[in-house]
Description:
Layout: E1 3-11, E2 14-23, E3 28-34, H1 42-53, E4 56-66, H2 77-93, H3 102-106, H4 115-119, H5 124-168, H6 171-190, H7 199-212, H8 216-234, H9 240-260, H10 264-284
Parallel strand pairs: 3-4
Antiparallel strand pairs: 1-2, 2-4
Helix pairs in contact: 1-5, 5-8, 5-10, 8-9, 9-10
Amino acid sequence: MTGYGKCTVVFQGKKITAEIKxxxxxxxxxxxxxxxxxxxxxxxxxxxxxxALERGKVEFxxxxxxxxxxxxxxxxxxxxxxxxxxxxxICKQQDIPEPTNPWLTLLRxxxxxxxxxxxxxxxxxxxxxxxxxxxxxxKQLVDFRIQEGAALQKKFEEKLHNIGELLASIAxxxxxxxxxxxxxxxxxxxxxxxxxxxxxxxxxxMIYYIEKLDINEEKQRLSNHLKYFQQTMEEGHGQGKKLxxxxxxxxxxxxxxxxxxxxxxxxxxxxxxxxxxxxxxxxVLNVM
Length: 288
């Protein structure tokens, strides 16, 4: 859900700029900074952004600049004085050092250059221009997200393939493991002198023990989850949370396989699968 967009146009001697950027978030968390002249349209702008983006921690800014450097920028002396008094009061109350150069702080405060714009009226012609600027910035961000999504899908497919290959590589060790368990138990009994035991009962107990360590069900479920993850990606937009849930289920099957694998080679494979899955989990947060 990360992305960035920016658009600037010149209208009647001033530059109008819209900038928007987004980071990961489970819901839409929208922050806006809009020049005073356009604040009457804030709800319309917010609704447009919410419709286009749906989720993400989004910061949107809309401001204007004089195109000509020869024009003097109007300063609001009363507003500057109010900002200055508030800053000094807070410094004293909170025991914070006063700024060494208050001008650097004051000139960055909102609206100190925009008093004249705030008194102006927004024309329909200008709003049409501004609306187009906003839409172009949003489109750039959406295009950015689409490119990122394509790259993420390629990454996910690579990781799914790797997990599938690792899962297949377990089979030879699994066959060896069953025989090793059986031989180890038999040798342990044989090493105890003067012990008599029922071979049929021993065989039953070994079968029960080996069945408890069987991982065929875990392998099948993990294989199904890999396919389901791929299918869900291909369904398109709005599958991010679902992919996250599937990744969690994949993790459960891999963990169970690891807990049942009492053979070093199999446990090494499980560790590699966990590493591949962790990379999926990290990136699935970027998916809508």
